[in-house]
Amino acid sequence: MGQVTNGKWDDSVATLRTIGLSDEIMKSASFLILEQKFLELLKMEKVGAALDTLRNEIVPLHVNLDRVHKLASCIISPSQCIRLGISGQDTEGTKSGSKILEKLQKLLPAAIMIPEKRLEHLVERALDVQREACVFHNTSDSDLSLYSDHQCGKNQIPSQTLQVKDNGQVLLKHTLCGHQKPVLIVSWSPDDSQILTCGQDEVIRRWDVSSGECLHVYEKTGVGLISCGWFPDGRGIFAGMTDKSICLWDLDGRDLECWKGQRTLRISDMAITDDGKRIISVCRESAILLLDREAKFDRLIEEVDMITSFSLSKDNKFLLVNLMNQEIHLWSIEGDPKLISEYKGHKRTRFVIRSCFGGLDQSFIASGSEDSQVYIWHRCSGELLLALPGHSGAVNCVSWNPGNLHMLASASDDGTIRIWGLDRFNLKGGEQSNGSNHQCNGRS
């Protein structure tokens, strides 16, 4: 490397011949070096020496013949070099040597010439391996250190019931009351400022997270609502009805659109992709319909047991499917649907239980359970990380806050929605408060 950067072209070529390169690589590398030697001689107006280099060193290599012809034209008329784009590179000492090194790096084996920034790449890869091996990893990469091996603890996973105040300080919780029937669904708004909740065959309520107030109640005369979700832009909501239809409302409750399913049964779960082009819904007991609204094309996911619910990943590439047999399946829905992973451990014998993606890069799977706990798994390994007690009835649904890696919500048959966050008492020795209750008994 020193010979090249110092412009010792003859020594550089001699070294190439001693390091066991294949004939093809040796000739190509020699050409790069000798071409630079030729151009520097021309720049110094040593035309005779440049001609000798071309005739006796470059031509015998029998490579890059078109380039050789262009170099020859520079002997006749040095101004030709500019027109042909040959002399545009730096030909001064270290600059020219550095450019040749960059080109040689692409030719020579890594065992002979270590790639540029190789150490940086190795360090980054080592951090990647540590991050991938850490099943509790749920923090920004800026927190990773080279001084010690990385290992997050369970305190990076939401495990404490909390309340969100106006100043963003995490203290305890809201208890949102008003549903007359068991709460089946809770869903965060895209900007995490509001929550939707849906009672069994009842109504949908929209809540303000900071105050705990009920902002609106959505219902349809003579029809029960059994599933709900947000528009990707947060400006409206969609809902599945007991009459097999799917309806869209703006935030003020005005009807926007409604579809009556042709192949659907009772729509226990549904989703819309971020671009609004695909609707995903359970179309029969053991199948999910992937419908392209524009192309009118659909595909099916066939499951091994009755489907009770599903959840769409943030990147719209994966589906999390809850089954009657107490299993949760992860499907890739890019191209032909493919089963990726399975999660087990939660309890489900009678009720619809819902799960969700969450955390950094959606690396975790969370689910409700009939034993009144919230279960959290590591998405890639399938390892069960935590089972969180707190509710006094079956936990029907969980939703991980998209704007806060360390916060999720859970809805239960005990009639409450709990907001979970980090256990700051154990982390900082802070004091807990008594929290607050909020009622929502009518339309706002």
Automatic annotation (TrEMBL):
SUPFAM superfamilies: WD40 repeat-like
Keyword hit for Lipid metabolism: no
Mapped WD repeat ranges: 176-217, 388-423
Keywords carried by this UniProt record: Repeat, WD repeat
PROSITE patterns: CTLH (PS50897), WD_REPEATS_2 (PS50082), WD_REPEATS_REGION (PS50294)
Presence of keyword Hydrolase: no
InterPro entries tied to this protein: CTLH_C, WD40/YVTN_repeat-like_dom_sf, WD40_PAC1, WD40_repeat_dom_sf, WD40_rpt, WD_repeat-ST_regulator
Pfam family, any one: WD40
Chain ranges of the CTLH domain: 3-49
Protein known as: CTLH domain-containing protein
